[in-house]
Amino acid sequence: MPLTQGHSANPILHLQRTIGNQTIQRILRSAGQETSEENRFGSSPDRTIRQKTGQPVIQMEEARQTATFPVVYTQALDRLQNIDAALHRHLQRAGWDTYQQILSVSSGVRNVTFHLRIREGSLPPGLFARFTRERVDYSDPTNPIYPMTITLTVPSGPTAVDELALALYHEGVHMLIYIDQNLPSPQSPHGAALDRYLTIARGHQSYASVLDSLVRYIQAFPPSAGAASFPTLQSALTGILNAIIEEKYLYDQEQAHQLGSGPTNGQLARGYIIEKLTAMGVRIAPTDQDLVDAIQGVTALFDAIDAQTGSQPQPGGGKAGSGP
After folding, report:
1. Which stretches of 28-70 are DSSP H helices?
2. What is the pLDDT of residues 163-173, one digit of tens each?
């Protein structure tokens, strides 16, 4: 979507007014917050993981074990049961403010285990959930442990359950994709569906040009630490572009399950590119041609995905969800 002078002075404010507070806050969440040290595995005071006969043992404080989930959360979780059964099952197995094992998959001599905790915490206004990948525990190489956290800010009011259900679904599918990426074979249909999105995007002529435009833009407006070399930037931006395509997949899933209307492709592309550049410490110059070209290029990728997947059945529905 081309940027115009009418909102170039404050693109974030314009986007927020256009697509609503909940959506834009999700777009603008800080990458730094997602990887803050207080959320990293091993830094939390409420559990200890140790090795005993080659197996992980999770110890939790007694007070934590008796904690109960907020009513709004349990009601929102019930909403997800007929939307994505695997996600619902994992969230049900999670601990409140403590890590609980939700999945263990053996492959030969290697056993991969995933732990999940749900907790209340401080999030930006309008953002009700955030999934965090914690530091993986490789103390036993044959049994890596993947701790994960979903942080909640429980909403209130007549739409609280709907708002939290939408946020849980969005962040929960991020979690399912992360789990699939770390298993020899996927446990949910989302990994394969996202791979299709990525294949379409990478095969489109705009994919390479978006990366080139972003590299030139960052070199023209480098962060205070200075711009990295071209190959380093190209590699980092490839990961960022793939993450933006994952967000596109999630918004499409929300609309397919009638959980939200979502932004347009142009709004989504613009919002996430601005968020990622800001997180890198890059100044936003809305009318710069390279930035305009990058936004238009990502919008074209999203349009191509829509053209090739618009009639495809959506994964994850109902009680048929896969996974143990």
Report:
1. 31-34, 62-65
2. 999 999 999 99
